[in-house]
Specification:
The protein is an alpha/beta fold. The protein has helices at residues 11-22, 54-63, 85-106, 139-158, 179-189, 209-219, 239-250, 277-280, 290-309; strands at residues 2-6, 26-31, 45-48, 66-71, 110-116, 161-167, 169-171, 193-196, 203-204, 206-208, 226-231, 237-238, 255-258, 271-272. The strands form 4 sheets. Strands 3-2-1-4-5-6-11 form a 7-stranded parallel beta sheet, with helices on both faces. Strands 12-9-14 form a 3-stranded mixed beta sheet. α1 links the parallel β1 (2-6) and β2 (26-31).
Length: 310
């Protein structure tokens, strides 16, 4: 029996596929390659479809005998929600509904879903535990919360088991979006000045991709009907410090220009730190701090850019 990984050619999904293949699993990747970069494990089968197309999704489920779904596909750009909510709805909510319906019709009863810290909105309790009320302030966060609700309802109605992971900022090899990537691109264009959205005081948790994937597999040890876990580091780092690390690694000394305000864009949560006590209780803890993760990710992305240009 096969394991389906939606978004398995993207940043987080491709790392999950690598791990599943290492474990000897038969893996089928479904991806529409919309992220602009694809990493397809040669030992996995690849199917290019759009998850917003219900017929295509159900066709894949009928073709393969899936025992488990890792639903990682989504539009990862939090900022796009204020510009194009329809894109977030189709790629996140509608896609998740289509996957769940295909699971129901073909008898697949296990789903692993990647959610986000943004479901909590501007939490007053820091670190924020899984039981904290969810009140997202971004379209992206709202869409992920809607997906969580759909999954929970399908679990209780159709006897499906789920693992829902709420991520802090995941960074590292193969990433092609986010603040680190943006800073690198800006500095390659103009090493004398760096625009920083907001006031640079935004303070958030960052987790390196290997830590994140390890946590996801650890979470599978839990055996409730719906298992919800935060995944992140145990500390925070400010955007201004991230800019400093990027500049140190690139060997440049630009003038920082701040756009002002306490957040980078509408829907941005300026302070985020997740409680990971629930995962720690079953034996997992991150290897890297936020600052270590940022420095490693900067080196990863610079090495990738250099190899692409050589």
């Amino acid at each position: 029996m096969a394991t389906l990984v939606t978004g398995g050619a993207g940043f987080i999904g491709s790392h999950v596929v690598d791990r599943l293949v290492e474990c000897g699993r038969e893996v089928v990747i479904v991806d529409n390659l919309s992220s602009g970069v694809s990493f397809i494990n040669p030992n996995a089968e690849f199917v290019e479809i759009n998850l917003a197309d219900r017929y295509s999704v159900e066709s894949v489920f009928r073709k393969y005998n899936f025992e488990e779904v890792w639903h990682i596909a989504a539009n990862p750009d939090v900022r796009i929600g204020s510009e194009n909510p329809d894109e977030i709805y189709k790629n996140n909510v509608l896609a998740t509904y289509n996957v769940l319906e295909a699971m129901r019709k073909t008898g697949v009863d296990r789903i692993v879903f990647t959610s986000t810290s943004t479901v909590y909105g501007e939490a007053k309790q820091i670190p924020t535990p899984e039981e904290y009320p969810t009140m997202p302030i971004s379209i992206y966060g709202a869409s992920k919360l809607a997906c969580e609700a759909l999954i929970s309802s399908y679990c209780h109605t159709f006897n499906i088991q789920a693992w829902i992971y709420r991520f802090a900022n995941v960074i590292g090899k193969r990433s092609n979006h986010g603040v680190i990537y943006d800073f690198i691109i800006k500095l390659r264009r103009n090493p004398k000045e760096l625009e920083i959205l907001g006031n640079g005081e935004q303070n958030k948790s960052y987790i390196y991709i290997s830590d994140c994937v390890e946590a996801m597999f650890f979470g599978l040890r839990a055996n409730e009907g719906v298992n919800v876990f935060n995944i992140g580091s145990e500390d925070q780092i400010k955007v201004k410090r991230i800019a400093e690390i990027v500049c140190e690694e690139m060997g440049v000394s630009p003038e920082f220009r701040f756009t002002g305000g306490d957040r980078g864009w509408k829907g941005d949560v300026p302070v985020m730190l997740l409680s990971i006590e629930k995962l720690k209780a079953i034996g997992w803890r991150p290897k890297y701090s936020s600052e270590q993760a940022v420095r490693m990710a900067v080196r990863d992305l610079l090495a990738n850019i250099e190899s692409s240009n050589s």
